[in-house]
Amino acid sequence: MIKVSSVNGSKGAFGRPTYSAAKAGVHGFTKALALEVAKKGVTVNTILPGYIGTKMVTAIPKGALDSKIGRLGKAEEVAGLIIYLASEEAAFVTGANIAINGGQHMQ
Q: Which of 1, 13, 19, 105 is labelled catalytic?
């Protein structure tokens, strides 16, 4: 099982405390569920994408994007991580909280 959260679940988002708290809660749920189903061979992980070049995000003024966010991720980059986590190669990965955000959580 793969849960998709947000970079804001780990770094917070100004003016969006409830959104950030909800996204952080996804990982708490993931860890608890991973413990419960591990003996059945089921893996449960969370990914935290940064800002992705979607129609909604690209509507943000370019100056704000460049100064606050930097490079936008591509949906294909996130999909690659999801494909890996769904594969047999990731059978030993569970309860993980994986950032895929181009370093946005460090800003």
A: 19
Look up the CATH number of the domain holding residue 66: 3.40.50.720
Full domain range(s) for residue 38: 2-102
Contacts 24+ apart (CB under 8 A), 7-14: 7/48, 7/49, 7/50, 7/51, 7/99, 7/101, 7/104, 7/105, 9/48, 10/48, 10/97, 10/99, 10/105, 11/104, 11/105, 11/107
pTM: 0.85
From first to last of its 107 residues, the chain has per-residue pLDDT tens of 999 999 888 887 788 899 999 999 999 999 999 999 999 999 999 999 988 888 888 888 877 777 777 788 999 999 999 999 999 999 999 999 999 988 776 65
51 is catalytic: no
Would residue 23 count as lying in a domain? yes
